């Protein structure tokens, strides 16, 4: 199976909302507020389908792994004032994502 097809068939994309958030929290060190802001941002920017939105959320969180925000010893990823939206916009610019 191709990588993209395998990704879209991944079990965690179909988790109930709470379980999906918990998976993101454990893997990417984001708190509930950050998760909901990311999810809302993609929804507001045209990703209405929940599976597509979760794919975008995971792609963004994977992107964060390479960024300074993730290089922390704290419990959660940290963003300054307006930093999350700035980071989301940078993600779109760098990955040429089409919303």
Automatic annotation (TrEMBL):
Q: Which domain of life is it from?
A: Bacteria
Q: What is this protein called?
A: Uncharacterized protein
Q: Which organism is it from?
A: Niallia taxi
């Amino acid at each position: 199976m191709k990588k993209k097809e395998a990704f879209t068939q991944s079990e965690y994309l179909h988790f109930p909302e709470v379980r999906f958030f918990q998976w993101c929290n454990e893997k990417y060190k984001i708190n509930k507020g950050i998760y909901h802001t990311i999810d809302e941002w993609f929804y507001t920017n045209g990703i209405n389908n929940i599976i597509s939105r979760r794919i975008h959320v995971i792609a963004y969180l994977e992107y964060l792994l390479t960024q300074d925000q993730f290089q922390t010893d704290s419990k959660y990823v940290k963003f300054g004032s307006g930093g999350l939206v700035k980071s989301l916009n940078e993600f779109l610019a760098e990955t040429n994502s089409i919303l």
